[in-house]
Design a protein that fits this description.
Length: 251
């Protein structure tokens, strides 16, 4: 049985880790390099590093920070933010990233997924999808959730898989930062309709929320930020509890 993965997320703005609610009201959560080191030591399965304002500010991901974080960790490490070309990905992988995450650039030019998958292999291409439930429909949003589109979450996810994505990182904007649990209904639907791993993001507040997203949401991995950054949940304790609930994890 494949083990379920616990993934702390480092949202970076101006060189600092930040965390907000529903993608706004950001507050400082510490130095990303130091946090990355601590998480690797504490048993995180992977890390995700997102330069959240890169697309909005029209610039590339901060390479120097990627190098520093890569030096500190011995677990798979995904980098996203402002990635739009084969050259961008080539540089990040050479700097130590194991995977890259693309979002807005994939929506604007879906062929990018094919190109990156063909060049680097689908195992290192993660497509992040930020979606918001509006009038009963999940709509994809771009540029850190600031630009709504007419794209349907599930149709886009199917296209992403077809084009060669190795994983999907789905963030529910409705749940983000609320600590009221993951969007398990949407996650379960994604898991049933797709064959690639789905990473759940947005809404973690308690250990039970992680149990629920693996059992009810059928998620392959769960990503969270503030509950880890501010010491509300310790990864080791979380994994022990998951094991008690018959959820396979790496201890």
């Amino acid at each position: 049985m494949l083990t379920k993965r616990i993934i702390p997320c480092l949202d970076i703005k101006n060189g600092r880790t930040v965390k907000g609610v529903n993608f706004i009201n950001l507050r400082d959560a510490g130095d990303p390099v130091e946090l990355a080191r601590q998480y690797a030591e504490k048993g995180a399965d992977e890390l995700v590093f997102l330069d959240i304002s890169a697309t909005l500010e029209g610039r590339k991901t901060m390479i120097d920070m990627v190098l520093k974080v890569a030096e500190q960790v011995n677990i798979p490490f995904t980098v996203g933010g402002g990635i739009s070309t084969i050259e961008d990905v080539d540089v990040l992988l050479k700097c130590g990233a194991d995977k890259v995450s693309i979002n807005s650039s994939a929506v604007k030019r879906p062929e990018l997924i094919n190109e990156l998958s063909n060049k680097f292999g689908n195992q290192c291409i993660v497509v992040a999808i930020d979606a918001k439930r509006l009038d009963g429909q999940w709509k994809v949003h771009l540029a850190g959730g600031s630009i709504p589109t007419e794209l349907d979450l599930f149709e886009w996810a199917k296209e992403v898989e077809k084009r060669g994505a190795g994983e999907i990182l789905f963030t529910s904007m409705n749940n983000d930062g609320t600590k009221e649990g993951f969007a398990n209904e949407a996650l379960a639907k994604l898991s049933s309709e797709l064959n690639i791993p789905i990473i759940a993001s947005g809404g973690a507040g308690t250990v039970q929320h992680f149990v629920d997203t693996f059992s009810l949401g059928k998620s392959d991995a769960a990503l969270a930020a503030s509950v880890f950054h501010f010491g509300e949940i310790e990864i080791e304790d979380l994994k022990k509890e998951l094991k008690k609930n018959n959820i396979a994890v790496r201890l």
